Amino acid sequence: MERHVSVSDHAFERLRERNKWSRSTIERMALKIYESGIRAEDVKGFLRDWMIKKQMESSSRIVHVLYGDIAYVYQESADGGNPILITGYPAPTKNAVVRVREGARRSRR
């Protein structure tokens, strides 16, 4: 049986907006990203910490996958069926994390 990834309407809107992808490109890439994207166990450092934090904030069926500079969020079905791409948003860069931390320090003073 061929594996398939469903794509939510929200994901279509976000990926058209953020990646400038057409509907057919999103449908094609959803499975590729799910199968070959980077998971938390595959990275180190601040990005791993960020991914683990996101995973802990979500339900156990939510999976965050990095592909390029975007974090894609999938919901896996309880019965082992096909996953659903829910959304995609920019993954943090080290510079963004440093800016946030510096801003937090300034606001505490």
Summary keywords:
alpha+beta; globular
Structure characterization notes:
This protein is an alpha+beta fold and 109 residues long. The protein contains four helices and four strands; from the N terminus they run E-H-H-H-E-E-E-H. It has helices at 9-19, 23-36, 45-57, 94-108, and strands spanning 6-7, 62-67, 70-75, 84-90. A four-stranded mixed beta sheet has the order 1-4-3-2, sandwiched between helices. Strand 2 (62-67) and strand 3 (70-75) form a beta hairpin. The radius of gyration is 15 Å and the shape is globular.
Describe what is shown at a glance.
The chain is an alpha+beta fold and 109 residues long. Helices cover 49% and strands 19% of the residues.
